[in-house]
Structures are given as C-alpha cells and as structure tokens.
Amino acid sequence: MSSILTNTSAMVALQTLKSINSGLAKTQNEISTGKQVASAKDNAAIWSIAKVMETDASSFKVIGDQLSVAESTLAVGVAGAEQIVNLLKDMKDLAAGAANDTADFAKVQAAITEKSNQITAVINGSQLNGIALLKTDINGSGGTDYDVLASLDRTSGTVATTAVSITVAGPDFEANVDVAGVTGVTDKATALTAVGDIEALIDTAIQGAATLGAAASRVTDQKEFVGKLVDALKNGIGSMVDADMEAASAKLQALQVQQQLATQSLSIANQAPQNILSLFR
C-alpha cells in the first residue's frame, strides 16, 4: 500500500543516514584528538582506569625529580666522606713519620692541625639544598636522618596509596670523627698514640662513607625504576585510549562512501510519493 502521509522507506533511509553520520562524527573526533576514548562518555570504565594511571604517572614523575635531588645530595655526602678518609690517612702518615727521635714534632703537629681544620671544613661544607649529611644536625632542624619519597604503592582495587620512603641515617662525622680529640704530637710516644687515635677515626669514616655509598646506590636504582615505571604507565594509557590511526582512516573513507549512498537512498525514498500522482492521470 502506498501512502502520501507515511513514507516508510524514507524513514528507514533517514535512520540509516543518521547512524552513519554519528559514526562519521565519532571517527572524525578520533582522528582530530588522536584518542579513541577522549571522555567518560566514550567508555566510562576505560576512561576511569586511564585517569588513575595518568595521576600515578604524574606523581611518579615528581618522585623521580625528587630522587634526582636526593641522588645529588648523597653524592655530595659521599664525596665529603671520601675526602675525609683521605685527610685522615694523611694525618696518620704525618703521625707515623713523627714516631722517631729526629722528627720535628712542632711542624708535624702544625700540619696535623691544618688537616684537622680541613676535615671540619669538609664536614660543614658537604651540603646541598640545606641538607648536610655529615653533620649531627642534618637539616638544620635537629634531624639525624634524611628521608626521600621513593614510591606511592597503590592497593589493587582501591584508590588508596601507601607512601614508601628511603631513609638514610646520617653518619654524624661531626661527633664521631672527633679530630679535636686526637692526641697532640710532642714526642715519639705521643706520635704513636696519635696514630692509634687516627686509625680509629679512619675506621669510623670508612664505615660512614660506605653507608652513604650504599644509600646512594639504592636511590639511583629507585630513580631508574621510577623512570621506567612512568614510561610503562604512559604506554599502558596509550594502548587503552589512543586511536588506531590506520583503522580510523580506513573507517573514515568507508563511512564517507556510506554517507553518499545513504543520502542517495534517502533522495530516492523521498521521490516515492511523487509516483502516486501517475495513478490520477
């Protein structure tokens, strides 16, 4: 039955054209934004997961920057500790050289005093951004440890995170490497006593330097891991929300052809009522 009031063919053609136009608009949006999931309405589940991953990636980027600062801070501490070990070695050599009756004890003691003063200067000067790892008060506020945020561990299925820090105990060279307590060299006997005093300080300094070196190695390893983690998160986000540009391009061309055909089909369907006029001629 033909009707001039209801054109079923035109209705079907119109719905088809609307569907094609909707798909075309979505594909064009994917190409223009480069994202298959650009907003929550595109895919709420994927979008929410991707946003959580984006916040994690951003946080880990900041953590990586802080670990770089910590790495430099520890490098300064290690350099200072190693320099102190060398200065103590020089002091020991001076004291050992004075363990004979022909030594000029006054000059030896003067040289040892200068080395001691240099050790004090190194302890005070081994600081970065207000963190002096070799002093008793590391941060100027009475702190004896140096903490740096290393990670934010997320519990599976929750939004809660747990902060994980790397804590570096200061070796406290200011108190433990007490060069002022070394016996003064005035004769052979005191020179030998000074050698024993300095040997004890060398052992303490070596242990402190080794502790800082181990901490520095851990911070470096964590920084490298965080950098790789950020890259992995970004790759994961991309695989979930980024558009496949090759597929989108092919789909766009197909939809453009379908749009042309659907438009032609609608035009033909709209001409159908005109054919009814021929029945009255």
Automatic annotation (TrEMBL):
Indicate where this protein resides in the cell: Secreted; Bacterial flagellum
- Residues in domain Flagellin C-terminal? 198-280
Q: Where is the Flagellin N-terminal domain?
A: 4-135
- Sorted alphabetically, which keywords does the UniProt record give? Bacterial flagellum, Cell projection, Cilium, Flagellum, Secreted
| InterPro entries the record matches | Flagellin, Flagellin_C, Flagellin_N
Query: What's in the GO CC field?
Result: bacterial-type flagellum; extracellular region
Q: Does the keyword Secreted apply?
A: yes
Which named protein is this? Flagellin
Per the UniProt record, the source organism is Cereibacter azotoformans
